[in-house]
Amino acid sequence: MTKMQHKNLVRLLGVILHQGLYIVMEHVSKGNLVNFLRTRGRALVNTPQLLQFSLHVAEGMEYLESKKLVHRDLAARNILISEDLVAKVSDFGLAKAERKGLDSSRLPVKWTAPEALKHGKFSSKSDVWSFGVLLWEVFSYGRAPYPKMSLKEVTEAVEKGYRMEPPAGCPGPVHTLMSSCWEAEPARRPPFRKLAEKLARELRSAGATGPVDGQDADGSTLPCGQDP
């Protein structure tokens, strides 16, 4: 994994094998994406910035896809935000070359594709399903997916064709992307390359990213809830 070099992947710097196994990763200062969004909210993070984060993740996953690697645990909690607001895919604890098989009891049910839950079939397409759930997390500003549903209820509902409604304020094209990620047939889900292209197009339509992380354009701090 030390050979995996991409601006949207957290860099693995090395491994220490002294009195146990320790993995040394690059420091990413602003924590994970879920907490970043929950603590700032709509007042401080605008739609273009949400699109930018989503695009960063798609580009990082496009790189993994090109290397035939499957993440298997893609979720907003496993995306870290750098000091300069770059989203980076992290936690490759489950990542491995495409193949079948993983103990289903270890899987994050609400993010895992039906074919992976039911048959242990993991691929870049199952990561795409998870990316759709991540998009829902991002545009809901860090809410837990499938709110008020148990894991059993989620599994049964998804199997019957249930899909989450878009979060409040979510742009229509983004919800369309989510829905394409949740196609029941894996082959019908878009590759990350296409997802990145569509997110880049939507970002251009939305305009440049504005102030984020509690600062106005001149660097002054904005009171919570106040627009620049």
From TrEMBL:
Gene3D superfamilies reported in the protein's UniProt record: Transferase(Phosphotransferase) domain 1
UniProt-recorded Gene Ontology molecular function terms: ATP binding; transmembrane receptor protein tyrosine kinase activity
CC annotations in GO: plasma membrane; receptor complex
Start and end residues of each Protein kinase domain: 1-203
GO biological-process terms attached to the record: cell surface receptor protein tyrosine kinase signaling pathway
Region described as Disordered: spans on this chain: 203-228
Domain of life: Eukaryota
InterPro entries (alphabetical): Kinase-like_dom_sf, Prot_kinase_dom, RTK, Ser-Thr/Tyr_kinase_cat_dom, Tyr_kinase_AS, Tyr_kinase_cat_dom
Sorted UniProt keywords: ATP-binding, Kinase, Nucleotide-binding, Receptor, Transferase
Matching SUPFAM superfamilies: Protein kinase-like (PK-like)
Protein name as annotated: Megakaryocyte-associated tyrosine-protein kinase-like isoform X1
Organism: Hipposideros armiger (Great Himalayan leaf-nosed bat)
